[in-house]
Task: inverse folding
């Protein structure tokens, strides 16, 4: 979700920026990590979010890929970003690129120019670039981020693909049920209107529903429109968060969701550690990727590491490991390649999550089809049951 954040800059006064964040607290944390003071945080208006979801969203992965290609060809960073700005057709994206070029010509480091545009460059990206400036390894840092973002997009794509069939099944079945309850049942209600108390109880309920729809359909349409607008303004996100909270309480599902969160944590930490960032600052940067419960555990683990404990000990004590991850953490500590080991842990759990999602999809499809079939069949039977009873009484 996008948030409008009013910030206080030491050099240019008060400004307003738009951030993509999981919550208002996450948006505030991103701005604070960039070194600015936060005056207020509010959800972005609906129209603003619709515009930004399309042409104005900064394509960070594509920018990194194109910039790396230009740098590898021997072009300087200023010329490379100027080239990207010249070919860009979207005004908002071009403005960000031209702002970077202006700052670079003024002598600012590349990381500082990125830090001045938090709506386009998240703190993780800025920290990776800043760490690379110490070793003049910008190309290597961009390559690591590209690999990191590509792997996340691949996993997200696999999970989305697994969810498409159940979502389509629920959507089509819901439309059929809506058509029956909103169009067919009200017309059947006139047929049974004279039968009154002779109708079965459930059929009478269906008749009352049909009469109510026919009489109050403007009110129902208004309520439906209000529900859609409320969902678009953030109410839908609140409902989704509550559903996710319920899923966390289901042992089998909650454990898989925890593993998914931990895999993101491991992959991001691996990228930062391989980029030369120390473990404690890296842990502070990745806190916003986790749920509130896991953020508390991560803060406790970070404090434990500050006190001199190893990463494996701190993570194990705070429930931030799996059986496989714990062993790999210990191996990484002995071998001194913790960043690479973190990425291997993430890859292992990503594959595990993808297999689990595929299995759940194969099971969920038939179950949903059975449930929706039962609901539609029940509505049809209740509509025709009085006709069957009338036929029996005539015979």
Result:
């Amino acid at each position: 979700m996008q948030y409008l954040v009013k910030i206080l800059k030491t050099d240019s006064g008060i400004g307003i920026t738009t951030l993509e964040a999981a919550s208002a607290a996450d948006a505030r944390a991103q701005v604070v990590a960039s070194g600015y003071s936060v005056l207020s945080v509010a959800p972005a208006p609906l129209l603003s979010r619709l515009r930004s979801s399309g042409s104005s969203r900064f394509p960070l992965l594509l920018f990194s890929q194109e910039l790396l290609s230009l740098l590898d060809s021997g072009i300087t960073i200023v010329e490379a970003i100027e080239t990207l700005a010249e070919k860009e057709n979207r005004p908002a994206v071009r403005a960000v690129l031209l702002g970077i070029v202006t700052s670079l010509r003024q002598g600012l480091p590349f990381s500082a120019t990125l830090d001045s545009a938090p709506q386009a460059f998240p703190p993780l990206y800025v920290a990776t670039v800043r760490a690379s400036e110490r070793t003049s390894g910008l190309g290597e840092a961009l390559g690591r981020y590209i690999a990191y973002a590509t792997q996340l997009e691949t996993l997200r794509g696999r999970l989305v693909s697994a969810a498409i069939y159940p979502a389509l099944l629920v959507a089509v079945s819901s439309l059929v049920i809506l058509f029956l309850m909103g169009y067919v049942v009200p017309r059947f209600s006139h047929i049974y209107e004279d039968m009154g108390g002779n109708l079965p109880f459930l059929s009478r309920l269906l008749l009352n529903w049909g009469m109510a729809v026919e009489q109050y359909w403007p009110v129902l349409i208004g309520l439906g429109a209000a529900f859609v607008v409320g969902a678009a303004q953030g109410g839908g996100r609140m409902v989704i968060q509550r559903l996710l909270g319920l899923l966390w309480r289901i042992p089998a599902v909650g454990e898989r969701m925890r593993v998914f969160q931990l895999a993101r944590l491991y992959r991001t930490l691996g990228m930062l550690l391989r980029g030369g960032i120390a473990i404690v600052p890296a842990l502070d940067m990745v806190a916003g990727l986790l749920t509130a419960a896991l953020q508390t555990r991560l803060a406790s683990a970070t404090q434990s590491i500050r006190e001199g404990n190893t990463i494996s000990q701190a993570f194990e004590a705070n429930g931030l490991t799996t059986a496989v991850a714990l062993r790999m953490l210990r191996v990484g500590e002995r071998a001194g390649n913790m960043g690479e080991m973190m990425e291997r842990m993430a890859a292992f759990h990503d594959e595990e999550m993808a297999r689990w999602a595929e299995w759940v999809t194969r099971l969920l499809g038939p179950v949903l089809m059975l449930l929706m079939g039962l609901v539609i069949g029940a509505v049809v039977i209740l509509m025709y049951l009085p006709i069957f009873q009338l036929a029996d009484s005539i015979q």
